[in-house]
Design goal:
Chain lengths: 329, 329
Amino acid sequence: MNTAATLSQLFAGIQNDLDRVDTTFQERAASGLTILHSASMHALASPGKRLRTAITLLSGKLNTYHFEKLLPLSVAFEMTHLATLIHDDIVDEARTRRGNPTVNALWGDKIAILLGDYYFAKTAGLIADIEDHRIDHLFSDTVATVCEGTIMEMMTAGSVDLTIDAYYEKIKHKTACLIAACSKGGAILSNASDEEIELLYEYGLNLGIAFQIIDDILDYTEDQATIGKPAGNDLRQHMVTLPLIYALQEQPQNGQYQQVSQLLSGEPQKEPDVRSIVEWVAHGQGVKRAQMDALIYGRKAREALYHFPASPHRDVMDELIDFVVARKK
Amino acid sequence: MNTAATLSQLFAGIQNDLDRVDTTFQERAASGLTILHSASMHALASPGKRLRTAITLLSGKLNTYHFEKLLPLSVAFEMTHLATLIHDDIVDEARTRRGNPTVNALWGDKIAILLGDYYFAKTAGLIADIEDHRIDHLFSDTVATVCEGTIMEMMTAGSVDLTIDAYYEKIKHKTACLIAACSKGGAILSNASDEEIELLYEYGLNLGIAFQIIDDILDYTEDQATIGKPAGNDLRQHMVTLPLIYALQEQPQNGQYQQVSQLLSGEPQKEPDVRSIVEWVAHGQGVKRAQMDALIYGRKAREALYHFPASPHRDVMDELIDFVVARKK
């Protein structure tokens, strides 16, 4: 399955508006300072799936669509997401992202810190353009939560006994809350009722959780050619994710537990050991059970969505759940 | 002269409100995450001069004083300032600030990056509380400008031929624009006229320039006991500031030019060489001419201020100029 084509087919109805968000992002990410401008243009040259923008716009389509309000909101969310990725790459000492060199790899940590800060400053201006104080607070709370999520991720790294609850707490903060803010923000700016705002928040939160679980699965099942990094990257960085937790729960007494524990404790890694753990998680119960969880959260997102009357845009949001859960990269 | 006592005498009339800003800062800088909370409380435990808050409040006092609006604005500006200091300390690899260990020294670069980001997120919430879109834009523009200033500072480090214009451009972006935003924001929130808003912006901008010039002078004239870092710190970090530019202009042909040039180019530093340059700048024309400039900018700040009718609060803002220019730490 060519997932990229599928996603662009799925978003055909909002393609023009997606493109306008891209253009505005480029304009607002510009700087008069050459080095900052170059780093900024490099950072946004390898766009992601534009999932956050699509969710914002589609949520708006379920009620009264005000693109002129959704435009700055979408740019602000994409820019926040990019700022956190840039700072994450410093924290993780990552040299590549999506197959391209990171900002810190090309310009060093200092410029990468400042480019992220610059984006945070710029998002404040975008949010101000919307002139809706509910959005101001949604935005501030979301960014603070994402920061806390990043710290949770750092603090739980290397923890072989990470609980499933702690894993979910971490991914809700780090990933799902921003996607939930997209659908909630889209709802707020399209005159949705309080109940509809809450339902779209639930849609985004559960979709975001499913998205992150799949991301964590793909880290075990995919290779460099597909996701732009070698399988087992999380494990190498001592990140404990759902597939690993389930794999360890399944066979807590076997030799792998000891092996994983040593790997996570920071002992020098032997590449064959890493690969054997990755194989064990990928082909055993770890990935299978994590996939079940992703399906459950996909279903929760669908339940929230089905409170809205059937419409072509609701259909797209429905298919998006399937896309997120079935995606291969 | 005990400058600290002088400053607290100067601010006696707004002391209660300054204290309330401190308390609210502590409340808003809290986090449910232990490590983030500890780092945050450490960062704000060594407060600066609270100059930004005082300027915000005093500017408000010149018109109709609305403390409930000025409170979140002051906290947001102090928090922004602290966030930029925390990120600066990573960029500069600084181990101490005001005699205390930096966040990066105690918790590492990762937590320091995230604490700064967390503060940026929190400031967005504070600004949202004010519910005034002029403030939203002022804030966003100011933070973006400060980021650009930090990059200008980085990019001009090591440049023996830095012009006076480029120096002023750098300090306007890095320091003065935030102080100008304090006085302008104070004016906006106290129902000042457009002309008064502009005048108070001029007051803050020129005071901020004078403040930074004096900071750069003190780096040559003061020692560790007084400013918490050894004299010549800027020079050691290859920062070219006004006293050095003037010293080099004064005697461009002498041996010092060559010596400074080598120092700035990153050649290994010999401590006696650094000290001899510091002495030459401190006791020659470099510092003298920079002091003249600081006086000129102080005068510009005063000219803007004197468009307001005489009042006890105007007197404080007037004396604050003298304090800033005469301060010894």
